[in-house]
Amino acid sequence: MASAGSHKNIELLTYSEVMEVSGYVGNFKVKIKKKPRYVDESKCTGCGTCQEKCPIKVDNEFDLGLGKRKAIYTPFPQAVPNVPVIDRDHCTYFLRGKCRACERFCETKAIDFEQKEQTLEVEVGCIILTTGFDSFDPTPMTQFGYGRYDNVITSLQFERMTNASGPTGGKIVLKDGTEPRSIAILHCIGSRDVNYHEYCSRVCCMHSLKFAHIIREKIPDAVIYDLYIDLRCFGKGYEEFYNRLQEEGVNFIRGRAGEVTDVAETPEERGKLIVVCEDTLISRQRRLPVDMVILSVALEPRADVAETAKLFSISRSRDGFFLEKHPKLDPVATTTEGVLIAGCCQGPKDIPDTVAQASAAAARAMAIITKGSVEIEPTTAFIDEKLCSGCRTCISLCPYNAISFNEDKKVSVINEAMCKGCGTCAAACPSGAITARHFTTEQIMSELEGVLI
Amino acid sequence: METPKIGVYVCHCGSNIAGTVDVQQVVEFAKKLDSVVVAREYKFMCSDPGQNMIKEDIKNLKLNRVVVASCSPLLHEPTFRHAVQEAGLNPYLFEMANIREQCSWTTEDHEKATEKAKALVSAAVKRVRYHQPLETKDVPVNPATLIVGGGIAGIQAALEIADAGHKVYLVEKDPSIGGHMIQFDKTFPTLDCSACILTPKMTSAGSHPNIELMTYSEVEDVSGFIGNFKVRVRKKARFVDEEKCNGCGVCMEKCPWKAPSEFDLGLGERKAIYTPFPQAVPNIPVIDKEHCVYFLRGRCRACEKFCERGAIDFEQQDKIVELEVGNIIIATGYDPFDPTPIVKYGYNRYPNVYTALEFERLCNAAGPTGGKIVLRDGSEPKSVAIIHCVGSRDENYHRYCSRVCCMYALKYSHLIKEKTEADVYQMYIDMRCFGKGYEEFYERLSKEGVKFIRGKVAEVTDRALTDEEKGKLIVCGEDTLLGTVIRVPVDMVILCIALEPRSDAKQVAQLFRISQGADGFFIERHPKLDPVATMTDGIFIAGCCQGPKDIPDTVAQASAAATRVLSLISKGKVELEATVAVIDEEKCSGCRVCNILCPYNAITFIEDKEVSRVNEALCKGCGTCVAACPSAAITHKHFTTEEIMAEIEGVLV
Prior knowledge:
CATH topology of the largest domain in chain A: FAD/NAD(P)-binding domain
CATH topology of the largest domain in chain B: FAD/NAD(P)-binding domain
CATH class of the largest domain in chain A: Alpha Beta
Largest interface: A-B, 65 and 74 residues
Helix content of chain B: 25-40%
Oligomer: heterodimer
Mean pLDDT of chain A: 93
């Protein structure tokens, strides 16, 4: 992160979003919205005084609500760039017109309440999408009691809890601050489930094993249950890690939990969360009374994945993730040339696989850069301006946004660099004004004639 | 020596250090140490304000030495060296005391941890006085790349680099590129034909102006260092002139001698002059000396007689080619595990027990049976058992999971269901369907009526206990979901064998000076953040030689290795480590002990002067030679005797 932040060839645009993309491989024009931070990046030294002095505390998104942050904040101490933002929705000055404590204490006068949203236009040759994943929200799976029982937490919340710089300073604790004596880790929450996501999220088995290990390390006498369907430990050193956890005394139960309840049936279940499940290896129903339940939630496509796909003219697969050009031989390219994908936006994957894929995408971009030019298919469509009636049917049909309308001449014009030669416009043109090169009417008719001999 | 003015900076690292070590106490302690001008603490020294604190002090207090007590140097030594350099000091006038990994994380008692942190800081302060300014050197990078292994990983990496406009030498030991992937029938989970999607890439690699294919060739020797490797390649004699042969195939037609085809794993035959498969790249046959009658008995030469181009050359000799390259990618793939030692599964004892790779050839339309799934007697099986994890997840063979077997086993089930009426049983431990579309494929197969039995198979036997078992292979095991012992009579058994390191992985590792992990596969520099680099600069790994993986993951990794090479090429130079060993020629007695001990072959003997000399570009600063030199003629820059003694003295305070 620090390298990326200080690299002379990298311009970081944080707190920013892409609004518009036009052009084609080698020549994209991208409009970027830079949201106002209300802090002048050129003046701020990242000393943190503003955050110390700000009187308003709100739930910290970074800690998934387990900790607090101020209304002026950096999400975490090692943030890059180390420049805070003011959260308008919680800042007293923005809400009630008073306070400005941060401004008063800022020695470099970096606070700027008047800052406005900026729009940047950049020109680039290639685009790599690495927009990642969203964590599945298990609230709809009411049987697991997430949101209802305090001590049912998601895997990402547990990550923050065990983190030394997290809200509990790395202590594994229940809502009431006490240490849990027993913990159940439930695999495949929202994954491998026809009601939510049919796919496997690829990382949960391993992070669940990691959780079990951390719990064993921090609470040596805790009772740990891992409720799994299949243990998918497929990477380098993964199976070995699974073997180690078995030796560390984790109770692996093959079976999907049916529900998590607080309705006790025996005295020892009182005050506990009871995980009800079928242990498929002994073919028996079991009730496991525990203090804490960790839900290993699915990785799912970003909530705005449809808009992003549209923005960059790429497709998605059935599971909602971005679709690669070829699942095997071209896993980082998309059907739009010059737009590449890497990481979990293409599908769930672990860190080594993500790093490999990201480097692969970089290789593609570098190949395009070093070549310096891209060859464009000559088999594109063209419009005979004399025949074009200006009806614009072709414009709405073109899947590559390659056709624009010339207002002066009142005719449609094809951008040959963007045209993929699919022929949709040629077939649809009511005036017969569009010809697909190499697939002209004469060529096709002669071919038909030939085949019928 | 100038008067040392030392600044000491102690990091809290949030609560990572400050939670155990009393940082304030350490700072107060440091302030009293000899030559220390300033000592400060900060929450995160690595953050911008932390670094700025150091830079300001260097400027304002005229510091000439800096000590940071924080995490492992592996993590942030470059960060702080850079900061020190930005403030105008030589980056080597800096020392790091590791009070996190080696102190706060490992010492529970707060008082003891604080004392230990003080000792480490004291050691660093004593040591840093003796640091000398060092300069790093640049060496140019030869833009040509050597890729070893012509499977999908090697082909992909070669195409990425060649497409970016740089020269690639692709060395393959077999007569054709294609690797294991070209042997497969369909690929999971999309079921497209493996050869159909690979051959376009193979022909691209074969005809690419920037790729020089060297098939039927092996790397014999590697010397040099990043940016400047020298490689000796043995081009084995094909006995066919590559310039003249046009691949017409008449020689193979006319050759009267047959041998079992390695490509079909002995299930089919080939001639003594052969290409391993029809789409071979290059499409140039080789003569197999072991089976050619002319070589065996001095007569025949049928191929020569019929070759219109006069391409057959029985006199051809192995050729040695010397290459100069800047980077090397190793993509040597895997060996399929031989299940013969697991006698209970009956491989080689029962004819209808097949390995997975044999089954790939069996159901391939271009394979020995024309794609028909048949038993040895030619009849169609009525039931097939597919046994997972043969040699994988087994402490007697390989502990690791081979990552691809669950999915190809599902693929086999589908192909069997498609081509025959057979019942299919899968005996698995866990179904590991983790990739994109994999779980969905598993769902589909469950609906296609495949019987999944969770349990490791104990034995395959032909001893029938009932009439219906007679003449069958009986798969015995435990169905762990039913909790019962089962006997499943079937006609055919497929063993999903492990992917294991190549039998010559050790030699290859030695040749290229890279390491193997406990599992025998080549080891990457960092399992998470540097999965394609090795500990030897300029040498990268991709594909199954690093560990079992499927095709998409192999392709991604191969492209990743190509990126690393491309960025070195476009930079044009590499910076060399400055902390190398130097030999004082006046003291060197010429005993050559260091020559033998150096693990990087960085020391050569100068015959004229009768002394040894270190090649600074190759030296990694490991210090082996320094410790071993009987004349104490070798000094290790940045790790001199003074520096080390001072550090020891400091830690004992």
